[in-house]
Amino acid sequence: MKLDVTALRYLSKDDLRVLTAVEMGMKNHEMVPTTLICSISGLRYGGVDRGLRELHKHKLLHHEQRGYDGYRLTNLGYDYLALAALSKRDSITRIGNRLGVGKEADVYHAETGEGEHVVIKIHRLGRTSFRAVKDKRDYHKHRHSASWLYLSRLAATREYAFLQALHEHEFPVPVPIDCNRHIVVMSLVDGYPLTQIRELGDPAKVCNTLLSVAVRLAEHGLVHCDLNEFNILINDDEEVTVIDFPQMVSTSHLDAQAYFQRDVESLYKFFRHKFGLDEEIQLVEYSEVKRTEPLDVEVEASGFGEKELGEFESAIQTHRGVDQNQEGVEVETDSDKDGDTEAGGESSNRGSGNAPEKSVRNSPDVDRLQGTVAEIN
Ligand code: ADP
Ligand code: MG
Q1: Which residues pair with 122 in a beta bridge?
Q2: Fewest 10 Å CB contacts: which of 58, 129, 243, 358?
Q3: Which residue from 97, 101, 107 has its CB within 8 A of the most atoms of ligand 1, so it is best to mutate?
Q4: How far, in Å, is the centroid of ligand 2 from the Cα of 243?
């Protein structure tokens, strides 16, 4: 399954300008009126009108006509803005196949201007079952004050900031390359998700390595909060890489200890059940962890005030709560009607437990890369 970026070829500079104007207008309008798009873009009405028609044709904009005349970005429209910016600075020039689809992100193979194989993670925090949450007033409240656009960007910015800090401190994480809006570019890890692994040469060593990563994170003032077999990649030499960081919290968070224990226990359970480990595992107590070099403060300083963090956490809770309660409910967002990138056509990689063993090899698939993003401008 590819991300269809072919329309990028046909968009003019003015079209992208109109698209950007709609994005800006969405800061305080759910639907952006044409007059506002004209004034933000600084283009004449004729140019804006042509741009709007073109963008609508390619499903980058949704046009609302009932009761209120205005436009808003679709998922694809927002993707295009981020991809155009990343391609302008050569951070990606090609996009390949999809590696994974989760409830909160889509991950694709990509290539940088230097030909390096990387991964782009497109955060889709607003993607949840609209039907499933129809009755939940909280969701609507949230939707209004913190839109999918804002939350997805916040998730990406947060993940990128954590990746940078962790990579600098030599944690086993992908190398952060770039970030724009809701898309993070990072190195492609050559490995399989741990959940797909049937056998390990030395499971006790792998488990202890992972537990020591959890402890080192806590020493640096951080708790991963989703440290399980779905977010750990392992290569043929049994070296691990930890991924998926937007939900990470500071050890000064009220629930940090509970999150830490949940992480450690879920690792412990996984290794015990799947590999029959027991006494070889060195269990760790949160109270014994000494906070040495706080990275949480560094990351918080990079734009995460309490307000952002609060909104972000409750959005994650809402989505996860809904997902857990509504397992198997068909996922449909209101924007699906406009032909946005599909949401939930494939099953989530989170918690399925039935994933085919070693079915996806995370190695570059060069032949099938689709070179289109480079062609804008
Ligand atoms: P989600 O929030 O959707 O769970 P993840 O960051 O866990 O997102 O990524 C989803 C899947 O994409 C992972 O299970 C993994 O298979 C793949 N993936 C993510 N990042 C990388 C990477 N840097 N290298 C290789 N594969 C990756
Ligand atoms: Mg994940």
Answers
A1: 106, 183
A2: 358
A3: 107
A4: 7
Same structural domain for residues 82 and 197? no
Nearest Cα neighbor of 126 from 337, 358, 349, 312 is 312
Range of the domain at 216: 190-323
Cβ–Cβ under 8 Å, residues 152 and 160: no
First-residue to last-residue Cα distance in the chain: 26
Q: Determine, yes or no, domain membership for 119.
A: no
Residue 43 structure tokens: 């283009």
> Tens digit of pLDDT per residue, the chain (377 long)?
567 777 777 889 999 999 999 999 998 888 899 999 999 999 999 999 999 999 999 999 999 877 778 999 999 999 999 999 999 899 999 999 998 777 789 999 999 999 999 999 999 986 554 434 344 444 444 444 347 888 899 899 999 999 999 999 999 999 999 999 999 999 999 999 999 999 999 999 999 999 999 999 999 999 999 999 999 999 999 999 999 999 898 888 889 999 999 999 999 999 999 998 877 777 788 888 888 877 776 666 555 666 667 777 776 666 665 444 433 322 233 333 343 433 333 333 333 333 333 333 333 332 222 333 333 22
- Domain CATH code at residue 58: 1.10.10.10
Q: In 3D, which of 335, 332, 354 has the Cα closest to residue 344? A: 332
In the reported structure, the alpha carbon of residue 293 is separated from the centroid of ligand 2 by a whole-number distance in angstroms of: 26
Give the residue among 247, 184, 242, 188 at the shortest CA–CA distance from 216.
242
Work out the angle between the directed axes of helices 203-219 and 256-275 (0-180°, nearest 10).
170
The question of whether 226 is a catalytic residue gets the answer yes
CB distance 172 to ligand 1 below 6 Å: no
Environment of ion ligand 2 (residues, CB < 5 A): 231, 244
Residue 236 located in a structural domain = yes
> What is the Å distance from ligand 2's center to 7 Cα?
29
Q: Structural domain tally of the chain?
A: 2
Which residue out of 226, 296, 338, 340 is catalytically annotated? 226
Ligand 1 close to Cβ of residue 129 (< 6 A): no
